[in-house]
Design a protein that fits this description.
mainly alpha; elongated
Length: 105
């Protein structure tokens, strides 16, 4: 008997159920969000939807870095040549002026 009452209670609880429905004005809110203009400033919207300017900017940045590296490398070669010649001249001056022979052991 207790089982029958329990089943009846469960079946009666389904009588008050209703079909699920969205909140009021849901479709109007969705349509507004779909067709509303973006809140971001115009230049930000332009960059977001156009990847070409971003790619060009990164390419220019990459080329400037390469140019900087190669120019630094060539200047290091020139300074090393100057350093070698100045060291040789210093050794020659020490050898001549001081009377020491740096090449003999």
């Amino acid at each position: 008997m207790e089982n029958n009452q329990r089943i009846e209670a469960i079946l009666n609880s389904t009588q008050s159920m209703q079909k699920a429905a969205p909140p009021p004005f849901f479709s109007a809110k969705v349509m507004h969000q779909l067709f509303a203009k973006a809140d971001a400033p115009r230049w930000q919207r332009w960059l977001i939807f156009r990847p070409a300017p971003i790619a060009v900017t990164l390419g220019i940045f990459f080329l400037l870095n390469c140019w900087n590296i190669f120019s630094a490398r060539s200047s290091n070669l020139q300074t090393s040549e100057v350093t070698n010649s100045s060291l040789q001249q210093l050794a020659f001056e020490l050898n001549v002026t001081s009377g020491y022979n740096l090449t003999d052991k």
